[in-house]
Structure formats: C-alpha cells, structure tokens
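Journal club prep — side note

Before the paper discussion, L.F. wants everyone to see what a predicted structure for a comparable chain looks like in token form. Sequence:
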Amino acid sequence: MTTNTDTDTNVEVMSVFTLTDPITDYTRIQHLSSTHVDTIAENLQRDEYRLMARKVLTAHQIARHTIDHMLVTTTSTTARIARTADKAATSQVAIALRTSPAIAADCIWIAGLLTGWDRLRQAFLDGHWSFTRTRYLLTELAHLTDPDVRTYAETCALALADRPTADRTLRNQIAEMVIALDPDAAADRREEFADTEQNVTITDDTHGHMRLHATMPADVGVFLATSIRNLINERICPRDPRPTGRLRVEALKELHHMPDAVLACTCDDEHCTRAIPLPPTPAPDPELDLDYTPPPTPTPAAPARVVDDVEIEAETDEGAGPRPPIALIPAQSSLTVITDPTGVAAPRLVGYGAIDPQHWHDIADGHLVTRMDLPELELPELDDPGIDLAAIGRNLAAWQTVTTITERGLAPPVDPTGHGGYVNPPRWALWYKPRDWLRQKIICWDKTCRYPGCGRDAADCELDHLVKFNRADPRAGGWTVEYNLIPLCRADHQRKHLGLWIPTMLADRAVTWRNPVSGKTVTTFPG
C-alpha cells in the first residue's frame, strides 16, 4: 500500500487553463515545466473525481424521482411494479448520462450505499479517490452491520484508501479486514456468491473467434492460471515470436486435451533447450496418396559447436536408443496458502489474496496445498506506525487498538547502509541470491510489489537490493538481508534501476520513494 506526500507548491488548475479555449489550453500544456506538471495533473485528476462523485449522487436523485413518480401514479405496490420502477429509473439515468444501463445501475447502487457511510461520502465528494475505488470499499464494507464496527471500519478504510496503492491491493486489504471481523459471515457470503455468480459463458466474437468468461472459486482460478503459466515456462523459450495471449490459448487447449493440441516452441533454433518433438505423422499409403514420395536419406550429424571454449558434440540418434517420453501435461500445480499461527490474520491464498478460514480448510482437504506460516516481523527498536491488519481480531476490543498512519507519522529509516541493522553480516548476507527461506519470509511480509501503484503478487516478483549489492566486495555494498530486500515485478525492477524514484527502507518495512526531479515522495507499505 502507498501514501502520497506532495512537496511541490500547489498550482491551481483554473490559473493555468481557461477550460473554454481548447487551443490556448493545449498550447499551455505543451509548455508546462517538469517542476509543476505532476502537481497540475494531480489537481486535474482530483477535480475529475469530484465531478464524478457529484454525477453519481445526481444519478441517484434521478432514480429517486423516477421511482417516486411511478409509485404515486399507480394504485398497486406489488413486487412486479417495484421491479418495473427500478428498471425505469435505471433507464432514465442511462439516458441522462448517455451510458449503458449496467453502468447506470452501478451508479445508483453505489450512491445508495454511500448514504450509510458519511465520512466515505465526504471523502468521495472531496475527490480523494475514483469511483472504482469507492465501489471496492463499499462492496466489502456493506456487509458490516454493527454500528460500532462500522465506525472503526470506516476509519481504517479511509486511511487505506487515501494511499495511492493499486485498486486490487486495496480491495484485498478491506476484504481481509471484513473477514477477520466476522469469518463465519464471510464464508456464508462466499457460498451465496457461488450460487448466484459462478458460471462459464462462451460467446461469439469477430474474425473467427469466441470469448470465454468464467467466474470460479479463487483456488480453481489460481490453479488454472498456475498450470497455464507453468506449461508455457516449461515449453517456450524467450525467442518464441508469439505474444503471451496466444501462448495462453495454446496452453489451455493442451490442458483440456484438445486433439493434436501440443504447445511447442516456434523459435526455429535447433539448439532450443525447451523444444519438444512433434507428434509423429501417420505413414502415408502409396496406393491412396498420389503425392507420396519416399522419405529422404538421413542427413549427416551436425558438426560440433563450441560453448564457453568447450566443444560439445551434436546429438545423434544412432545408438542413442529412444528418447525419453515427453510429459505433455505438466505435473499438478500446488496452491500456496499463508496462515497466521496466532489465528488472527485471515489466511491468504498466494495469487489471489485473503480468504475466509473455512475456504482454507475446504481447499486443504481437496487439493495439493503448500502451507506457509506467516513469519513474525521483528522490528528494530523504533516506532511502528501504520495500520496493522493482523491486529484486526475477531472481537472489537482487540481491533480498537488500531491507529492510522495520519495520526502517528512515518517511521525513521532503518539503515541507510543497506546492512539491515546488522553489525556483522550473517553467513547468508554476502551471497547475491537470497536463500529460499529468506525469499519466502519477504513474500509473506510484503505480499505485493513494493513499487508505487503496483499490485502484482510478491510471489511473481524478483527480490531487489535497495542498496546495491557489491559483487566485487560484498561487505562494502548492501547485504542480502531482510531490511535491504523488497519484491519488485520485473518491469518495476527495471524502473527502479533507471533512478526515476529513489527508495529508502523505513523501520516498519515501509519504503519511501523520492522523485529526484520534483522532490515528491510516495510511501509504500507491506501488505
């Protein structure tokens, strides 16, 4: 999760743009300085959010007036009339907003939920976040009924939502909080959702294609996605020219045992280490096949090649015997669930997020599941601010101890040397590649990519040394220890090395990223 602190001077949008003269405004945009352009863009975005909030609440008023008019003009109040009024209200909003009935219904529904959350509504009207972010918040929080619980949940949600973290991460954090407060109710909601929403639909598309959409349990989705990814990694080398989407379709065909469907690398490199032999073609019948020609004479063996000054003889089939069978379908992919030994934090399905405890027990009985215990975060002797989601217990008294980041401020840097607080390096600290146990601890702690705005699962990320590891003199550089490593997805790992944002690890594993040009800072938090 992330929080934003803007050190630039505030630039009013109205003082920069006319908003009535398109040519003049376009010219001014082209001449914005690098110092102010980020601030102006943020102000424009906030104004857009403010207008969106007012549009949503106005849509709700249109719906109310339409329903009131229909109920006044009819003598019946049956359920059929109520449904007709709801549809008419949705239609009126769709016409007014020039949008689809589905989007209109979404606006009406969200505006209705906002009536029960005063501070969330005020923040939405003040442009703190987008409509999508508001929908994620309300979809989860709407299940809370106890007034005291709702008050504290709203406080926590406001602090989490104000951080410019990925929407996917925010949704998972709010879901984790709601599950921890009432795990039994969360399990009941999951079953109700399964009854109404689980489905697989296949519809026509253009250019000889069809579109598949499926709503399935999280463990099934993670299992399928992992199987597809593993098959591609096993069979396809980086030189294959096909886009990832096409590779996934080919993998899905093989996993579903479609006739003659075999995912094979098409890099055309005779030395490709991931190539597999294609299925043998049936021998033609000379009497029926007029184009039949005898098979060509076997060609001589390829010459030896030299790799790293070592001569490697080319493989030949002579005397080598039959090649070992190729496993066309990869071995069963396991699911990984991170559990809290104390029973406070909700279980977390890697690749998805928080799940209710009953869901965890269900998949543990029916699948190959790897269980990992959530490691205890040993903090230095410094203040530990922020929202500790693991402290959200199943009773209100335990949860009331949670405080927000806005009340306590940021923790200090933990160790600018990159030695993670160690005086002498542990035996594993001077190796560049982290040990497996260390990688698993960091994945459990951080959960997602730690670059600003990214929500990619930490299990799919690389571990980056915040202070660069010195291969020539490991003691002089940053060490391979807990407080010098964070997960970054490959793309963000490259951006970090470009120096667009400079990171600093804080005592609670928060990371403050500073833009060296504008001075702006963005702080990302684990979880």
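L.F.'s comment for the group: The CA atoms of residues 49 and 130 lie 6 Å apart. Keep this in mind when we get to the figures.
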